[in-house]
Amino acid sequence: MPLALSTVTLASPSRPPRSPARVYRQTLWLLTGRDLRVRYSTSFLGYLWSVLDPLVMALIYWFVFTQIVDRSIGEAPYIVFLLAGLLPWTWFNGAIGDSTRAFIKDAKLVRSTRLPRSVWVARIVLSKGVEFVLAIPVVVAFAIVFGAELTWGVLWLPVAIALQATLTLGLGLVIAPLVVFFRDLERAVKLVLRFLFYASPIIYGLSDLPAGLDTWMAFNPLAGIISLYRAAFFPDQVEALPVIIAAVMSLAALGLGILVFRRMVRAVLKEI
Amino acid sequence: MGDVVIRVVGAGIRFRRNRRGRRSFKDLFAGRNRRSRPNEFWALRGVDVEVRAGEAIGVVGRNGQGKSTLLKLVAGVMLPDEGRVDVLGGVAPLIEITGGFVDDLTVRENVHLTAGLHGMTRAEIDERYDEIIDFAELREAVDTPYKHLSSGQKVRLAFSVISRLEEPILLVDEVLAVGDRAFRDKCYQRIDELLAGGRTLFFVSHNERDLKRFCTRGLYLDKGRLQLDGPIEGVLAAYNSDYGSPS
To answer: Quick one: how many helices (H) and strands (E) in chain A?
Structure first.
């Protein structure tokens, strides 16, 4: 049988080794692209799903707080106020929730490729982040329809995204390896996330909290971050203290994440 | 002889004996230390190997004696608890080769994804894409979702991608047992070509014929130790005299 002989290429040390940063970037984009492509090619609604979830939630809260009870929280237009908090929350919630399965889901790949290990967490944060960015036009649309005025506070948007990415990546790097050993953590994380939804200024603003409680709330890094997102339409939401705390805590989370991840990765690789 | 491309110095790795063994946070953060804890055992210990460019090495031993673990250490998908494993140069690991493929994506998308994850640049993938598809004999199926391929086709595609990585070191773990005969012959021929092209081969197998066909040097692993390192015939003879000849 004639075999298709291919051109034999010599072992080529000629190709210069690529820098670790480049490998990391390429891997990250490949995996993120894979996630999004799988999402969009397997479902009919595709992109809409990533918007639909926060949108439905926003409509429910909007209905409850403006049509049933008289809203005394947040700012008008309340639907824009809600969405500006819910979309970042969807990113945070999705990324942290998925990071519990970061190694389990891609176990075969982790076992067979020598990639920088933190990429398994980073790609979750990135792909959920891309979905978040793609959902931003929805807020814009609602803002136009309900007449919310765009302010210079919109310049905070990149800062908010950077802080949230840092915080989420840091927490993910702690959670992902721990779940491999303590499976209970997967459910615990879900529970904590549900609690955190109400314990973060999403359906309300920091200033709606009774005096005293708002100081405590400032130590929830999401409080500062969400206020920065809202600054685009509601600049009064931004206060210095929560933002500074959010920045410090996000960096601390990333530092802790890197530390925990480095110490545990050896054991994780044996376990999966 | 070429330069040293794989250097394993005093490498050891240990595993837990039982899954339910008590694990404390302290254990997890212990990192690498030399103490062996009661419910752990060393799967490999004190292994020293130097491999030079262009060598073809066969790893021999019974199941559970650390063959695949050694291969994984060289592939960099596991990290040693003691000692070092240095690999100079890229590695094409034929370990769980179908691992990176995604069910819902097409053959074409999967080729790009897997080749990219193994370090090929876009330009390189585009350049070799046709070769890869032709070698896997999947020209008609490029737009089929991966999950609709037969298991034989999946392995063909995977082998085709990984063996086309152009990395100087090739790691092979028992993958040649799969696929139909015609394709196996093709795989063998491909490995021959790669060897002729100066690649370094690290080969784990139970098949004596394959080992003799490709390898010149053998490593015999038993009880987590490197028992013998020498020409493949001698290593196979030692293994057979310890555990009875299979032929």
So the answer is: 11, 0
Tokens (6 digits) for A113: 């490729």
CA of A192 vs chain B CAs: smallest distance (Å): 21
Say yes or no: A259 contacts chain B, CB-CB below 8 A.
no
Taking only the tens place, the pLDDT of each residue in B160-179 is 898 888 888 988 887 666 66
Q: DSSP assignment, residue B57?
A: E
Size of interface A-B (CB pairs under 8 A): 109
ipTM of the complex: 0.81
Can you give the pLDDT at residue A183? 85
DSSP B168: S
CB of A25 within 8 Å of any CB in chain B?
A: no
Q: Can you read off the two tokens belonging to residue B159?
A: 């082998």
Decide if A34 and B29 are in contact by the 8 Å CB cutoff. no
Q: Are A111 and B117 in contact (CB < 8 Å)?
A: no
Cβ-based burial of A152 (10 A; exposed 0-12, middle 13-18, buried ≥19): exposed
* Region class of A138: left (phi > 0), else alpha (psi between -120 and 50), else beta: alpha
Q: Are A164 and A236 in contact (CB under 8 A)?
A: no
Domain containing residue B79: CATH number: 3.40.50.300
Substitution target in B117, B185, B193 with the highest count of A β-carbons within 10 Å is: B117
B174 φ, ψ to 5°?
A: 55, 15
CB within 8 Å: A266 and B32: yes
Residue found under tokens 């990415």: A165
Q: Report domain extents, chain A.
A: 22-33+40-271
Q: How far apart are CA B115 and CA B96, in angstroms?
A: 14
Binding-face residues of A in 34-63 toward B, CB within 8 A = 34, 37-38, 41-42
Q: Total structural domains in chain B? A: 1
CB-CB neighbors (< 8 A) of B91 in chain A = 114
B13 belongs to a structural domain: yes
- Look at residue B26 and tell me if it is in a domain: yes
A71 DSSP assignment: P
**Residue A256: pLDDT over 90:** yes
Q: What percent of chain B has pLDDT over 70?
A: 87
Whether residue B88 contacts residue B112, with contact meaning beta carbons closer than 8 Å, is answered with: no
Contact between chains at B135 and A4 (C-beta distance less than 8 A): yes
The residue of B28, B41, B85, B195 whose CB has the most chain A CBs within 10 angstroms, and thus the best one to mutate to test that interface, is: B28
Residue owning tokens 């519990």: A100
Least-confidence region, from A31-40, A89-98, A152-161: A31-40
Distance (Å) of CA B239 to CA B62, B221, B233? 9, 9, 10
